Amino acid sequence: MSDTRIAIAGLGAIGRALARRLAQGVPGVTLACAATRDRAKAQAWLDEQKIDCPLVNLDDLPQHADLAVECAPAAVFEAICRPMLAAGKRVMVLSVGALLPRPELIELAKTTGGQIIVPTGALLGLDAVSAAAEGTIHSVRMITRKPPTGLAGAPYLVENNISVEGLNTAKRVFAGTAREAAAGFPENVNVVAALSLAGIGPDRTTIEIWADPAVTRNCHNIEVEADSARFSLAIENVPSLENPKTGRITALSALAALRKLSAPVRVGT
Which of 29, 123, 195, 227 has the most CB atoms in a 10 Å sphere around its CB? Predict the structure, then answer.
């Protein structure tokens, strides 16, 4: 079987980490191209890293790749996904919250035979949630605690005039559904969007978001009540040095998902 050709859409902290690892060689996949807003900056970085990877337009991704990894700002989510899905190709999405208000992309994938892949990302336990969803899940609750700098500038905070500067104690800045959180914190809580898609949906999955000066990691706690099991999950992610809004494990999760595409042994649902 030939290698799956991978496109990286976005060369920020996650995209760069993926490009470096794919350039080193991953069985079954090959780095085919990348797309980014600032081509000059991206090309300079690629040259510095000695990575041979053509830069292309988003509309041209289907011509070069079988699967595109979306790791760009949520504003260009649809521009990345639609051309690939229209061509019957696959997209791996990290800005999962941007998928919730765009169910038409899921319908497009059904129509063309394309596929949207949501990796575990900065979360854990999605296998257990997906398994429980084959039965009946009664509730899914999540509490996220982040350093204030990891939440600063979120649209919800700006629109509601909520400040996270100079905090001495933890401050709850949001409580609501996964759908509401994804809209208000598009760069901060994609994890809860993925959790909702694995389980009972974005309108029944709930989340609290705390700005906590006492934590140095992005902390997520999940509680699930189902007819098959009751379980609690907790993870503390080390923030990326380049972008404190995302955890280092996010890029590694995407890499692990890419390895599974052609692995002789696949662990997990």
Answer: 195
Q: Does residue 1 register a pLDDT over 70? A: no
Coil/strand/helix, residue 144 = strand
Question: For residue 256, what pLDDT is reported?
Answer: 93
State yes or no: pLDDT of 131 exceeds 90.
yes
One domain, residues 172 and 201: yes
Strand order from edge to edge, sheet including 4-9:
29-35, 4-9, 67-70, 90-93, 115-117
Task: State yes or no: pLDDT of 246 exceeds 80.
Answer: no
Instruction: Report the side by side order of strands in the sheet with 218-226.
Output: 171-177, 205-211, 137-146, 218-226, 230-237
**H or E stretch covering 42:** helix 39-49
- Could you list the active site residues? 220
Nearest to 84 by CA among 100, 119, 60, 110: 60
Please report, for residues 133, 135, 182, 230, the alpha-carbon distance to residue 200 in angstroms, rounded to integers and kept in the order given. 7, 11, 15, 15
Name the H helices within 61-203. Answer: 61-64, 77-86, 103-112, 126-133, 155-159, 178-184, 190-198
- Paired sense of beta strands 29-35 and 90-93, if any: unpaired
Residues 18, 70: Cα–Cα separation, whole Å: 11
Q: Residue 16 sits in a domain of what CATH number? A: 3.40.50.720
pTM of the model: 0.92
Same domain, 166 and 116: no
* Opening angle at CA 266, ends 141 and 196, nearest 5: 20
